[in-house]
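Exercise 7. Predict the joint structure of the components listed below.
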Amino acid sequence: MANGAEIMVQKKDGGEEENMAAWLLGVQTLRIQPYQLPPLGPHDVKVSIKALGICGSDVHHFKTMRCANFIVKKPMVIGHECAGIIEAIGSEVKNLAPGDRVALEPGISCSRCNLCKNGRYNLCREMRFFGSPPTNGSLANKVVHPASLCYKLPENVSLEEGAMCEPLSVGVHACRRAQVGPETTVLILGAGPIGLITLLAARAFGAPRVVMTDVDESRLAIAKSLGADELIQVSTEMKDASEEVVKVQTAMSSGIDVTFDCVGYNKTMATALNATRSGGKVCLIGLALSEMTIPLTPAAAREVDVIGIFRYRNTWPLCLDFLKTGKIDVKPLITHRFKFTQEDVDAAFETSARGGNAIKCMFNL
Amino acid sequence: MGSQGDVRNGEEENMAAWLVAVNTLKIQPFKLPSLGPYDVRVRMKAVGICGSDVHYLKTLRCAHFVVEEPMVIGHECAGIVEEIGSEVTHLVPGDRVALEPGISCWRCSYCKQGSYNLCPEMKFFATPPVHGSLANQVVHPADLCFKLPEDITLEEGAMCEPLSVGVHACRRANVGPETNVLIMGAGPIGLVALLAARAFGAPRVVIVDVDEFRLSVAKDLGASETVKVSTNEEDVAGEVELIKKAMGESVDITLDCAGFNKTMTTALNATRPGGKVCLVGMGHNEMTVPLTPAAAREVDVVGVFRYKNTWPLCIEFLRSGKIDVKPLITHRFGFSQKEVEDAFETSAHGGSAIKVMFNL
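Solution:
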């Protein structure tokens, strides 16, 4: 097939559409190939994917064939931040109908273990998550997915915004775990895609003041336009840490209640632990290093707690509400758009990996 | 011979153990401030030695607190009320009381929100520049003196202070009837944490240490299982397995009462997803730990600084017998120059010395 042709509905013998998907075959090797869907279960829906964003973890899988403990051992469909249109519903599905526009929550948990039963399903050890090996992702014409993980989009929320619910959920979950509210001043380290959605979420949760840092001025400018109160440009040098702590504390002007480390390096964690007020919280979202060397003891001795984040739980309804009411506007984060062709898939991943002025790369299928 | 204080001009001279230089304690006169309307004057009867007291003796500092001039040592104490200020209504002379060491400001936002242990203006016995309580008598706010029930001894009263650290840690980590608890370190703090965890209802408590004697004390005090560990960082993975086996079920909460890279690494790796690690022990400032994998399992790290609002609960635990601290008091000394020196040497030695107690 020609590289530039849109991969929509290839007809097989018998007139059935052949479902195509972007498969990760090896390091830096994505190929659009057929993707056979499982049969539709009674509680499933078949969704025609319309919008899909690229995540840093997708890029990481692409570059290294692994991400933390997840290793790509066989070809796997990439992608997980998605929204689409219902095409078919299983026999027991009552609250969705063909034609409905939905945002998809990627992870299917087991519902039987203690973590699931206690509501912390994001930590389920049997989780099957789009694009986390060995589970195929959703950069495809169609997927089959549990109806309970498909959330109907309000009229005024676009499919691209629906796809943005996934990264936005990370920020929402972090704000919940860190208990952000109308009295919590927030410091966000890192103004990349995750730092920026955390900013949006923190504001939606009522944070009265948000200070953000980054090494990159252009990302700080975006943060400013999205509502950050103060921006501080920082360095990558550990020796600058104590000076930067003073700068962020001065910029906040009152104590820093919650710090989100959306980067996850020794320096950012050191800054977070030292800058946060006694009794405050540091929320580690950025998952960079395995082992960190950080001033943990003085922070613990000031009762600064460190809260961990893994994905999200029960966030789609809230995200959709924030988008519907306009409390959050994610559209400025979508900086680059691509079609579902071999050429564009390659270009999209290259653009996303580059970073810089590329915040969210979005496929339109 | 006890230093009860020479009688001068018909008045007793108050004596205290002063930290005057590195490794140098001297019993010398300690002039008390005048009694304010909300104060009481307490005759000290029992004072325990804490690791921080030993640290000050050896180095004249502890974290960022520096001893710049001679300071009376000691803070874990109980005694008998001798005199009460004009506005004191809940205590009378003769009452036996346990003392909470720290006087906070009650004006700042921390104090007003109940986190008075974090008060920046905290005045704490034997944290420089505030004098401690290893003395014949001290003057102290009455609201920080808690009356002991009849059948609780003054030594047990003094033990409320270290016990409070364990109680506060259990509260911050949410220890309860459904939480299996792992404790790193069976020293004085690990052991009070064990007692507190049991009192909070923890169904299973596994405790680890390098020292077999301390593990046997822990077993006597009610640890479900003990695991002997090494100081070798390479042994972490194996020890995590041993710990999980000893617990039988998942580790919900870990209290690191040692505070080393290895113990924190073990704690972070052994605790179940969604669990908590409470860093109680204060070792090095900078720690190298596998924080990210733990954070990515939503294992939270909770810090503790001293305690808040713990004396009533400690006293109730002692009164009801839910906690018995008496086995922790392994060595006793009187209040004389030689005994003060011997006591600190014993405490610093560790090993079979858990809590060293002065009887005045």
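Discussion. The two ends of chain A are 17 Å apart (CA to CA).
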